């Protein structure tokens, strides 16, 4: 790994500051005035919780390429809205049937399944609305590119497809290649898209984009490996969600496949690859992206 930038005071200050900016932007864009209380459900699903890793990756990538920060904030919030909608739907009884998310009752537990379903639908729509503002602040070609990146990452070739594989894999002994393939879609695609959408706010050559894409893919895979580790080593109060649920549901995980120590070593290996890709990009402002990789590997929830 890199030289421990995730412990650096400057990075912590950057992270807290950007988390606050993202929270404020989300609060400004996810309004409470949707009909029949839907806005309140949407705000409950999005605000006051989560690490905001996806927005942070988008904003840090924008900084690395010296792109447009205002467009990057729209991209950051759009990705977070897609992530939030996916959590609302994944937690419902028809899928993971979970009751705890970000330390509070899941949306369907608090507001009912119908409102949860509608809130997820509305959050997904709002994500794309943010990328196509009617004030001309985002060039049309860039809006189209960002929308396509997000749609591919969220749809059948990305997150939704990965979730379908996940549901079909309960009780199935997947090998490492199949497990990685599932999580590159379910979790990794949106994390990778976060990086690439932030990078899209500047004009870059293909070689740099390839290295950033590799970085994003490695972050996505490492995040899931660490998530599997935390699922068996950390309690629900710390996680903010139900611990041990993968094992209870007989889902294949990196820990069940490799064992705890080997899974941790594999997470470290993948994060090393992320750092190497950043170094190979030769971009001059990648310290924050390096620090985010370290943070992914060392997080406790």
TrEMBL record:
GO MF terms, alphabetically ordered: (2E,6E)-farnesyl diphosphate synthase activity; metal ion binding
Keyword Transferase recorded: yes
Family annotation (PROSITE patterns): POLYPRENYL_SYNTHASE_1, POLYPRENYL_SYNTHASE_2
Matches recorded under Pfam families: polyprenyl_synt (PF00348)
Classification lineage: Bacteria, Pseudomonadati, Pseudomonadota, Betaproteobacteria, Burkholderiales
GO biological process: terpenoid biosynthetic process
Cofactor: Mg(2+)
Organism: Hydrogenophaga pseudoflava (Pseudomonas carboxydoflava)
Alphabetically ordered keywords of this record: Isoprene biosynthesis, Magnesium, Metal-binding, Transferase
Superkingdom per UniProt: Bacteria
Protein name: Farnesyl diphosphate synthase
Keyword Magnesium assigned: yes
EC number, as in UniProt: 2.5.1.10
